[in-house]
Amino acid sequence: MNALLALIKRDMRLAVRVGGGALMGAFFFLIVVVMVPFAVGPDLNLLARIGPAILWLGALLASLLALDRLFATDYEDGSLDLLMTGAMPLELAVAAKAIAHWLTTGLPLVIIAPLLGLMLNVELTATGPLMLTLLAGTPALTFIGLIGAALSVTLRRGGLLLAVLVLPLTIPVLIFGVAAANAAIVGPAPFGPPFTILCALSLASLVIGPVAAAAALRHGLE
Amino acid sequence: MRLSGENLACVRGGREVFTGLSFSLAGGEALLVTGRNGSGKSSLLRLMAGLVRLAEGKLTLDGGAAEASIAEQSHYLGHLDAQKPALTVVENLTFWADYLGGGDVAPALDAVDLAALADLPAAYLSAGQRRRLSIARLVAVNRPIWLLDEPTSALDAASQSRLAALMRAQLAGGGMIIAATHGPIGLEGARELQMGPA
């Protein structure tokens, strides 16, 4: 337990000190979402309709940003070798890194989502459920992204391959996240079913992601 | 405690690095692995650290902790130093001490003479100082087997003699050392395993 907390603390410290930290992901999210009204035009009704979808896409891309360096820096400086010699199984070490990644990348997105919802003319009553869907779904994005990051760990410029591997796997999360958000806003469809499926996807990825990523790392390191 | 390897073989990148390697080492003994570049010294150490898969043969540890693998009971000191430039010296060492099972950081920094630089970001360390910080990790966390890959590279004479003293202390405590090296590292009475064509 001590080892798990030490790893989470170290990764969070590094995320804050290096490369702009938590704010960078949130700023990227902000920029992407701000560009949409410029591209689409001032049609408020259209913006309100696609608002949740844009927020989810922005969250997805912002999460992808930091995934590239998740394992690559540890691989390049030899830390990954030593992480594998701890008493903690590699699966747990990988999960710890993912938790730290979500706390510094996913959680800030959830927190600034209301501000961005305002820019996209999302109704005030809908921002609560919207934040809830992001809170339930961004862990899935991180844990699924783990798999791509582990597969591309030995590549120097693995960013694009990572995106190609990860984005298709996150499609279910995207679909149910937007469906839940839309159900809360527009509504005849109930909020419950898509939201619970979203939670289930997150919980499943919490297990599958680290196991798959650890297997990929072991093969990549040989 | 006895670490023995029987008929070990290693394949990396499709190329057979070594085959038919056998050795046996008891607690308190040191083994120097020598050989030409490319003969498989680093691969042998990585194999023992569990980082490379064993293609053939068996590696067993008698008398160690029953539930732990060999990797969990060894320290691997490789060419890369596993230090984060953004963290300070003491933060780097504290992290590894906490992660690898606990140990005292301050005496370890004193043992390698880095106590004065404890709050310096690791980005500003020289190569020799980074190596000494890696050695501090071995001192901070107590593990019976030390797997050292060219431990004296980048070290000045004073640091080399400090390392030799630390290695002697490890052997005196019943631990074992396997070191890949090109030259003497100050351990008298160590056995030698020469890698190369039979």
How is this structure best described in words?
- The complex is a heterodimer of chains A (222) and B (198).
- With 222 residues, chain A is mainly alpha-helical.
- In chain A, 84% of the residues lie in helices and 0% in strands.
- Chain A has one domain.
- Chain B has a single domain, classed as P-loop containing nucleotide triphosphate hydrolases (Rossmann fold).
- Helices cover 28% and strands 28% of the residues of chain B.
- Chain B has helices spanning 41-48, 89-99, 105-111, 127-140, 157-172, and strands at 2-12, 15-26, 30-35, 56-62, 74-77, 145-149, 176-180, 191-195.
- A five-stranded parallel beta sheet of chain B has the order 5-6-7-3-8, sandwiched between helices.
- In chain B, helix 2 packs parallel to helix 4 (127-140) and helix 3 crosses helix 4.
- The longest helix of chain B is centred in the C-terminal third of the chain and has 16 residues, at 157-172.
- The radius of gyration of chain B is 17 Å and the shape is globular.
- The model of chain B has no long low-confidence stretch (mean pLDDT 90).
- The chains are: A mainly alpha (222), B alpha/beta (198).
- Chain A binds chain B through residues 2-3, 6-7, 9-10, 13-14, 17-18, 73, 76-79, 81-88, 221-222, and chain B through 12, 46, 49-53, 68, 71-72, 74-76, 78-84, 86-87, 91, 94-96, 98-102.
